[in-house]
Specification:
alpha/beta; Rossmann fold; 3 domains; three-stranded antiparallel sheet; 10 helices; 22% strand; elongated
């Protein structure tokens, strides 16, 4: 019975996996996952799943296509062919919510977008302490009793004391025979990553643009988190001045001032230097902007990228969000200054449908 339940559960999970994968593009572009995340799982609404099965009807029953009729004769539609009438009392289709882990969701996205795995750095320098059961002691909770060692210890005691009877080999451990598993804390190498999000919150970045940013950032987070043992996120916003905020303020803040991108670059540089040693951390910077920047500030941005940011990051992604208010010139500047530098990724979001391509642009190098 237990094996049958396990088989049914495995079959159900495969069906859910297939439905989620089939609708993944919709989830990515429409942002349905945001707000449904709880811990390490995402609640996904899917239509009610019907398991196909054969049903035998009455031998003499008649249905559509049975009986006599003339060629071209229409099939009757019932008393209300136009759908006019009172509300019915029959049940309708239901939506069922299933939980899918973020790890599974990342795997599905990786398959859909054909994303390469990220090769972490810093595995030999960043360590956690992990409890490992690798020793034995005489005391401990009964849940950790080592039965095999306890039996051997009792057998040795009975043989050495001469009470062991080979004709009646009954082994009864006493208190002194009991052995318990124990643990020691051992260092475990881990790979850690930090994602630093930068966003222009000047007047030209509207709420519509920020919604596109939030959708894409969710999936970027999901993928990078699946590649590392530990991940941190930092959020920096800027107009002419930059500041660090929490996630909610990152997507809600809007200022009416101008734009100095270099202020965010300088704050990101200070953050990395003070908290994230380059030899130990995998560093990602994701910048979102509509492409506006104060002209005199461009050269300072280029200098900070060349000297301070690109040399220390796994990848710097500049994602330009199309806006009717923004000029969009900043991407042209980056293209002309950095050309084919693999550490810098340039992408553009014009609407919801372009989010998947932008995710592939940002994550497709596996850095």
């Amino acid at each position: 019975m237990a094996r049958q339940i396990e088989r049914d559960l495995h079959r159900f999970r495969n069906i859910v996996h297939g439905r989620v994968k089939h609708d993944l593009r919709k989830y990515i572009t429409e942002g349905e996952m945001i707000g449904r995340t709880g811990g390490e799982y995402v609640s996904i609404p899917i239509p009610r799943i019907e398991i196909p099965e054969f049903r035998f009807g009455s031998r003499n029953s008649r249905g559509v296509g049975a009986g006599t009729g003339n060629e071209g004769q229409e099939i009757a539609q019932g008393p209300n062919p136009n759908g006019v009438g009172q509300a019915g009392d029959a049940p309708g289709d239901h939506i069922m919510e299933v939980e899918v882990s973020l790890t599974e969701l990342a795997e599905l996205m990786g398959e859909e977008l054909q994303l390469p795995r990220i090769k972490p750095k810093g595995e030999s320098t960043v360590e956690d302490l992990k409890d490992k059961y690798n020793s034995i002691r005489q005391t401990g909770p009964e849940s950790l009793r080592h039965f095999k060692r306890t039996y051997k210890h009792a057998l040795k005691r009975q043989i050495s004391s001469g009470v062991y009877d080979s004709e009646n080999p009954l082994i009864v451990p006493i208190r002194e025979d009991r052995q318990y598993r124990s643990w020691t804390s051992v260092p475990k190498p881990r790979s850690a990553a930090v994602v630093i999000y930068l966003m222009d919150v000047s007047g030209s970045m509207t709420d519509d643009q920020k919604t596109l940013v939030r959708n894409q950032a969710f999936w970027i987070d999901t993928w990078i988190k699946s590649q590392f043992d530990g991940m941190q996120r930092r959020y920096l916003i800027h107009d002419t001045l930059a500041s660090e905020v929490d996630e909610e303020a990152f997507y809600r803040t809007r200022e009416s001032g101008g734009t100095h991108i270099s202020s965010a670059y300088q704050l990101a540089t200070d953050l990395i230097e003070s908290h994230y040693p380059v030899s130990e951390w995998n560093i990602y910077i994701m910048q979102f902007s509509d492409g506006d920047n104060w002209g005199d500030d461009n050269q300072k941005c280029v200098d900070l990228l060349k000297k301070s940011l690109l040399p220390v990051v796994n990848q710097f992604a500049y994602v330009q969000v199309h806006s009717s208010y923004g000029a969009g010139e900043y991407m042209k500047l980056l293209k002309s200054e950095f050309g084919e530098d693999e550490r810098l990724v340039l992408s553009e979001i014009r609407d919801r449908d372009s989010i998947m391509k932008s995710i592939r642009d940002v994550l497709g190098k596996g850095r």
